[in-house]
Design goal:
heterotrimer, B: mainly alpha, MetI-like fold, 2 domains, two-stranded parallel ribbon, C: alpha+beta, Rossmann fold, OB fold (Dihydrolipoamide Acetyltransferase, E2P), 6-stranded mixed beta sheet, 5-stranded antiparallel beta sheet, 18 strands, ion transport (chain C), ATP hydrolysis activity (chain C)
Chain lengths: 350, 554, 328
């Protein structure tokens, strides 16, 4: 009987100790302000951790990380307000960076290095955030059934000839939202709505699963085309699972809208928090992430396109060939995001 | 004259006198605990006054119908499936002797150890194109029969198969303790086994079944990961959509208020139904149930029935995870996982301890307090479980940040130095949030064992000159510690699996296995998520097996 | 030693009263019984005395010390009252001796005291057993020993014999009250069985619907009950209606209510008032015979008699001294 009480007491002691040490840590850390940086990131790849470690080694600045989805991180920063410990916010899409900016969570950064490396459409118009890597939203087609010559644009996918052939995931996915936002920006709301409605009519099945699942369904013949991110096809191509590699081999990649606006791209990007306690470190950190050294790591390990043009893409991406990207300023994706969601709902896109 | 007297008794003045006399420190402690637990919920409720966001009409017009119909569908189908899985297995295991019964007893609890979104991924992996089923069928030269699990029914099935142990555990405890004398009485009246079960045992087991079922339904309504992946729009996916995609937290809060209303109506409906037929649960019968030994064929049949949910709820998903783990072992496995396991284990342990202590404190302080309405108020403590974890997190952050801001300003004024957050972003806030969320999980088993102890026992202790507090440690604690331990283990397992709260509130440098698994899964690297998931299952399996030992040895 | 004044307790915010305006006083050293049907408020009364519940209004004084009032409540654990619960409420995880030591842990010679009370109830050899290893009667005695161990100023027993079978009951009843008398403590016990009360109580309190209807010595309650209800608690009575009065030709006061006890009805015997009757039905009860009688004026009556040989035609009567008179 007393044993159990002891256990409970021990847990309590442990609990209180843990808290105290934690608090002490915090206070000590805050005294040596220049030695650390707090990163709120949606990216949780080994490559990133590897890069953070390198940054620590090179600069002696300790990198503290909180991993969560961008939405949650933005909510957290909003509530924390001017006391937020966050220095850098990293997301995997431009829409959320824009949202962070409009919520007043980021600050403009003037950095020669960033300005020279990153193309202007891949950064915020007010320099609140900067792209780190790119992903293209492409069409994956069944090689045995579809000729790439028959494919042209995102808009063409609404044609009746694709009825019951198209696979695409739920509209709650940010990349779909961004795609529709880009169409709103390029062609206006009315056209965008028509596009969404007609695409829903052409769907081979009700949206479910993730991008990988769409590709697998194409391979299995449930549909002929899937709208997916290059990033995930890259992962599929290099999967540990032989079945998945087989799937990847059976599909071809088509970059749409080459003759018109260019293929829709989205980015993973970073911004400096408005109330960043370690602003200088934060800038240094983002500059490091777009440096050739860091961009190579991104490109080679994650099947993303680097923003630094001096860095080559990975072997997998190279095979798909080069493409023209939509030069639309990515801030517009964020501005039109909410409109896109509402259009999706109205079009009955689950 | 008497009438005059009675109206005098209830004059405001006399009521106040009595209130003063009857209030004791336990009334205050109860109020404190309830306030602490209800604070996040109240914070969110308060936000309702701000009105919903501008997209509210859009949601009502285009989406709400879907949310309501899907959520109801899930409630109905899951209730049915969970009832079938949970009650049948509980009954067969408690009533019959058959091969591997002892092993199956604890295997039936293990599905709880796997987060349901992981089960969802595993099932998708099994039935996928190029999935395990296809590979196996091809190996045997069979035609691939595709089963589509990614739909409403598939979701209901996956949730039921991973959550039915809640019903199994509570119902079996009832069968083991109570069913024997009922069976005997019924046999004396010449009523057959099956009729006895349906006419007598089942109605009497109802409170036990419902206690488990309500936990299951709250989890079902709360599920985000599996529903999202299977493309089923529910209230919870709607909450996330309006919060994150539509950028309207106010709308999300409105939706969660609706969800809360739904949960409440379920609970009230059940209470109202039960009020119509008052059962006294009777005293605990120490006599353990007499197990029937049937012939070999029947034994085999029973074995097959009982192993089915274990197969679907545990072996199949785990086998799929192991297969993935083998494929990704070299790239994912890191000795860091062991460290992570230890960290996760400690957090879960601390949280479980704190939650059990809070739940016990709430139950007993509300008993020791003599003011009626405070007693009723203590029921509010279980609200947190009905609200999605991410919303609870907001409810926690708003007040803790307010306190922190105040403290920080104060410290800055006094010492001239600025400090970081004191509550927010520390383990304290995280454990607090867990406790708010999981108090209901701890509350139920503790309360039900407490109700089994006759009121006369603590009363006897008091008349022997021993106060409430000492009575608890000397008399009640030894009698209810099994309930407290099972509460501890249930919370422990839930914390291991918990995701949204952890993501938002965890301190820098603290990480859990569930977060790790989520990091992979959210990046569509489901296979890579297998290893951390297996670590979760392994860490959770130890106490689950222990829980069973405890329930049986009683 | 116990003084209670206008004590009331209600449930459901005054919708139903368990106890209404009860006042009485008890002296030192005697055994008191509280008798009433279930729902009469007797359990509420003793729980209020023990401090397990708080009254809506009224006061309780023990040994001239106020323990309960609308403004004050001395906690149960500070009242020094021994309580034997209906279901005994032994601590199931403690051995006999530990159960008894529980209430006297602060005593210096607690082991000695435990030994004393165990000897008093005759269970010394069983001190290392657990409660579930004992019979009902033994558990009852342990509960008593445990309550007596701290030398309470007042001992309360709630339905002490209701869980025992009839054979054991009479034997244990005498045994228990021998022990109580021996220890010299003032005792109150609650029962719905008047036989128990009559057998051992010095004084009996009758509760009806939360009100105290009579408090008197056993013999007085029997001979001078204050109401029909009290009279009927102590044996079958026959109400003397106007029709019966005229049948027996007995002139009684009209502003009162009258009854006669069944055992005071005489058959084929000399009495103050007599009438002739026909026996319609005889039922053999063992100790006597139950008769369904039709008086000559047409009234029906049921009586029990010790006579074994009864003819069809009988005379039936009673004496005027046995007539019970109640003011309505």
């Amino acid at each position: 009987m007393t044993k159990h009480i002891l256990i409970v007491l021990m847990a309590l002691v442990l609990f209180s100790c843990k808290n105290e040490t934690k608090n002490e840590d915090n206070s000590q850390e805050s005294k040596e302000i220049s030695q650390e940086i707090n990163v709120y990131t949606h990216r949780h790849y080994e490559a990133d951790q590897e890069l953070f470690k390198r940054f620590e080694e090179q600069t002696g600045i300790k990198v503290n990380v909180i991993n969560a989805s961008a939405d949650e991180l933005i909510q957290k920063m909003t509530l924390e307000g001017d006391k937020s410990p966050a220095d850098v916010l990293i997301t995997v899409d431009a829409g959320r960076l824009h949202r962070a900016k409009t919520s007043g969570l980021l600050q403009p950064i003037s950095s020669m290095i960033l300005d020279s490396i990153i193309p202007s459409h891949l950064m915020d118009t007010d320099k609140n955030w900067f792209a780190l890597t790119k992903r293209a939203r492409v069409i994956a087609y069944a090689k045995d059934r579809i000729k790439p010559e028959d494919l042209s644009t995102y808009q063409d996918l609404t044609d009746v000839k694709w009825n019951n052939k198209i696979l695409i995931r739920s509209s709650s996915n940010i990349y779909n939202q961004s795609l529709l936002a880009s169409i709103i920006a390029n062609e206006g709301e009315e056209k965008a709505k028509q596009w969404a409605e007609s695409l829903v009519a052409n769907m081979a099945r009700s949206p479910k699963g993730n991008d990988r699942d769409q590709v697998k369904a194409v391979a299995a013949g449930e549909g002929d085309l899937a709208i997916v991110n290059t990033y995930y096809i890259g992962m599929l191509t290099n999967s540990e699972n032989p079945e998945e590699r087989k799937v990847a081999e059976s599909i071809g990649i088509f970059f749409p809208n080459q003759e018109t606006t260019g293929t829709h791209v989205n980015v993973s990007g970073a911004g400096v928090a408005k109330y960043a306690p370690n602003k200088d470190n934060a800038v240094k950190f983002i500059e490091f992430l777009v440096s050739e050294e860091a961009q190579e790591v991104f490109a080679l390990s994650n099947f993303e396109y680097p923003v630094n043009s001096n860095v080559k893409v990975s072997e997998t991406l190279k095979k798909w060939g080069s493409f023209t990207e939509d030069k639309l300023n990515l801030s517009l994706l964020g501005e039109n995001n909410k409109k896109a969601v509402i259009l999706f709902d109205e079009a009955g896109w689950k | 004259m008497k009438q005059a007297g009675s109206s005098d008794i209830f004059s405001i003045k006399n009521k106040l006198f009595r209130l003063k006399r009857d209030s004791n420190r336990w009334s205050i402690i109860t109020l404190c605990v309830v306030f602490l637990i209800a604070l996040p919920v109240l914070t969110i409720a308060f936000k309702l006054f701000n009105g919903p966001g501008e997209s509210w009409t859009h949601i009502v017009k285009n989406l709400l119908g879907d949310y309501v119909s899907n959520s109801f569908y899930l409630l109905v189908v899951c209730s049915f499936l969970v009832f079938v899985f949970g009650v049948t297995t509980a009954w067969l295991v408690a009533r019959y002797e058959f091969p591997f019964r002892k092993q199956l007893e604890w295997l039936l609890i293990l599905p709880l150890a796997i987060p349901s979104y992981i089960v969802a991924y595993a099932y998708a992996g099994v039935f996928d194109y190029g999935g395990s089923l296809e590979v196996i069928q091809r190996f045997f030269g069979m035609e691939f029969t595709r089963v589509d699990v990614m739909n409403r029914f598939g979701l209901a099935f996956v949730l039921s198969i991973s959550l039915f142990p809640y019903v199994y555990v509570s119902t079996r405890a009832f069968f083991l303790n109570q069913a024997n004398n009922l069976l005997e009485a019924s046999r004396m009246l010449g009523v057959g086994e099956i009729r006895t079960f349906f006419k007598l045992i089942l109605p009497l087991a109802r409170p036990a079944i419902v206690a488990g079922l309500i936990l299951v339904l709250m989890e079902v309504l709360n599920d985000y990961g599996a529903a999202q992946y299977f493309g089923v729009n529910t209230f919870t996916t709607g909450i996330f959509r309006s919060w994150f995609s539509l950028e309207e937290p106010e709308t999300a809060i409105y939706l969660s208020a609706l969800l809360l209303l739904l949960v409440f109506s379920i609970i009230l409906f059940e209470k109202w139904q039960r009020r119509k037929m008052q059962y006294s649960s009777g005293k605990t019968n120490n006599q353990s149930i007499y197990r029937k030994i049937t012939n070999k064929r029947k034994q085999f049949l029973i074995f097959c029935i009982v192993i089915t949910p274990v197969l679907f709820g545990f072996f199949i998903p785990v086998a799929q995870l192991i297969y993935w783990a083998v494929l990704t072992y070299s790239s994912v496995f890191h000795y860091e996982f062991l460290l992570l396991s230890v960290q996760t284990f400690s957090i879960a342990f601390i949280t479980a301890a704190v939650t059990v202590i809070l739940a016990t404190l709430l139950i007993f302080s509300s008993r020791w307090n003599r003011i009626g309405f405070i007693k009723n108020l203590s029921k509010l403590g279980v609200l947190g479980y009905a609200i999605p974890g991410a919303v609870v997190a907001i409810g926690i952050m708003i007040p803790t940040l307010a306190i922190d801001r105040w403290l920080m300003d104060l410290i800055e004024k006094i010492s001239g130095q600025s400090f970081g957050f004191i509550i927010h972003g520390t383990l304290f806030a995280l454990v607090y949030a867990y406790a708010v969320r999981f108090l209901a999980v701890a509350y139920n088993p503790i309360e039900s064992t407490t109700l089994k102890v006759s009121n006369a026992i603590p009363d006897a202790s008091k008349t022997l000159g021993v106060g409430n507090f000492k009575t608890f440690f000397k008399i009640e604690y030894p009698l209810i510690k099994t309930g407290m331990l099972s509460a501890f283990i249930l919370v422990f397992v839930d914390v291991l699996k918990e995701l949204p709260l952890t993501l938002i509130l965890k301190p820098f440098q603290v990480n859990t296995l569930a977060v790790k698994a989520f990091e992979y899964a959210s990046d569509e690297r489901v296979m890579e998520a297998a290893i951390p998931s297996l670590f979760i299952i392994f860490t959770a399996a130890i106490p689950v097996v222990f829980l069973n030992k405890l329930l049986v040895s009683k | 030693m116990l003084k209670i004044e206008s004590l009331s307790k209600s449930y459901d915010k005054g919708k139903s009263f368990a106890l209404r305006d009860v006042s009485f006083q008890l002296g030192e050293g005697d055994v008191f019984a509280i008798v009433g049907e279930s729902g009469s408020g007797k359990t509420t009364l003793i729980r209020l005395i023990a401090g397990l519940e708080t009254p809506d209004t009224g006061t309780i004084e023990i040994n001239e010390k106020l323990v309960s009032s609308i403004k004050k409540n001395v906690a149960a654990e500070k009242r020094n009252i021994g309580f034997v619960f209906q279901e005994y409420a032994l601590f199931p995880h403690l051995k006999l001796e530990e159960n008894i030591l529980y209430g006297i842990s602060k005593l210096k010679n607690k082991k000695q005291r435990a030994k004393e009370v165990l000897e008093l109830v005759g269970l010394s050899e069983m001190k290392d057993r657990y409660p579930h290893q004992l019979s009902g009667g033994q558990q009852q005695r342990v509960a008593l020993a445990r309550a007596l161990a701290p030398n309470p100023s007042l001992l309360i027993l709630d339905e002490p014999f209701s869980n025992l079978d009839a054979m054991l009951r009479a034997q244990l009843r005498n045994e228990i009250f021998r022990i109580i008398k021996q220890s010299g403590v003032t005792a109150i016990f609650v029962t719905h069985d008047t036989q128990d009360a009559l057998a051992v109580a010095d004084e009996i309190l009758i509760l009806q619907n939360g009100k105290l209807v009579q408090k008197d010595a056993a013999a007085n309650l029997y001979t001078k009950p204050s109401s029909v209800y009290v009279a009927s608690l102590f044996g079958n009575t026959i109400q003397l209606s106007k029709e019966l009065q005229s049948a027996f030709e007995c002139p009684l006061k009209t502003d009162c209510c009258h009854a006669i006890r069944n055992e005071n009805i005489a058959i084929n015997d000399e009495c103050d008032y007599v009438t002739n009757a026909t026996v319609l039905k005889k039922t053999f009860l063992g100790s006597g015979t139950q008769l369904l009688i039709k008086l000559d004026n047409g009234e029906h009556l049921t009586v029990v008699t010790k006579h074994t040989h009864i003819d069809e035609r009988i005379t039936i009567g009673f004496n005027s001294k046995d007539v019970l008179e109640f003011k309505e």
